Sequence to fold (471 residues):
Amino acid sequence: MIPVTLFEGQKVALFGLGGSGLITARALQAGGAKLVAFDDNPASVEKAHQIGIPTGDLREIDWGDYQALILAPGVPLTHPQPHWSVDLAVRAGVEVIGDIELFSRMMQKQGRRAPFVAITGTNGKSTTTALIAHVLSSAGRNVQMGGNIGRAVLALDPLSENPANQVYVVECSSYQIDLAPSLHAHVGVLLNVTPDHLERHGTFENYAAIKQRLVAASDIAVVSMDDDFCRQAAEKIENDKTPVLRISGTPVSGSDIGFDGSDLLDEAGEPVIPLSGIGSLRGQHNGQNAAACLAVCQSLGLSNEDVLNGFRTFPGLAHRMEQVGTVGPVLFINDSKATNAEAAAPALSSFDKVHWIAGGLAKEGGIETLAPHFSRIEKAYLIGEAAGMFAAQLGDTIPYEIAGTLQQAVNHAASDAAKDAAKDAAKKTESAVVLLSPAAASFDQYANFEIRGDAFKDAVSALEGFKGIED
Fold:
């Protein structure tokens, strides 16, 4: 844990006592702050009280005595309306900040002795964060990874005796950046910006500006060229004298690092690192993630050989195009986190021939936007409430069956894929892939996408002849 000494001896309020809130409270206590914490959920308040965190109703304190309100990122700051604790703090002229801001200020206070890499984007930021951390770690760096990816940033280890070898790699959501007005990373990464979380930010312009702020305030900005907003952001940031490294998931002209479908390319379009054959980095979207990783790692002094070695051992993230294993020549991929059509598109686009397991609780529009990828589908196995809707959208051109359950879908897809793989072996063409990429929420059959993905992995591992990737 990183003790937060910014408010030693001073009064600080904290609202939001979930996982990160409890850790933030502990970090403030360890740093000597006079803390009072609260939550709208009485059970959360009682839990905090039981573990020794001072609690009290923030409606009853004298805000004039307080230096800051530390707000959990899940609590509304501005939209759809400010939380009541925010209203009270703002009226009293008390700043409202979050744990990422506390972390950034502690890095500044300690002289920024260890590199701090901050990653954001609408999509891909968790994979890119994990990939950067893995490559740096495989090259011998002492990597501390956290933030929105799962481990609260203040739960990371404090600076070591050799901080020059230590690197903090932090995924930042728009909620966290919004609560971090002085966020200052050594290397900031902006992968993409598409409309999201507008209920919390009001407009796309507000949401996009928050994302841009992370890279604009970094010593070095790594910015994608793959959407209009990011291209404009890169130009503006560079005009403001921040060095920009441009990356892309395509061989687009003007990129410092691009991707041609098999290799990462330098600014001259020459191959520098091959990605073909690295199963955890399939697809254009992972080409962009890998390009961002290379840019960051080069900025921190790693060689291309260091980066390639890290790429080759990257396991990927659970439930995100996760390679589960094989049965003979058939590869099984768990992409359970694809809970809408947009999220399923990268996985479908990454394989030429797919036995696709899809369905669940449908989102608006179903799978209409996936039509450009239908030609890659050998057969679809439809599950859950969305099965009928998805069948209608697939129409008469794509073979499908209403499998109903995930277990039945796995069994039927495995059998069909094995038959196709046998035919392909004679033709010397690519073998089949069984892909769970549901393009729907899990809640009709599973409590969350993680449980759905684990059920898929269990069903696959029970197949005769199953072999794990690491076996």
User: Anything to note?
Assistant: The radius of gyration is 24 Å. The mean pLDDT is 94.
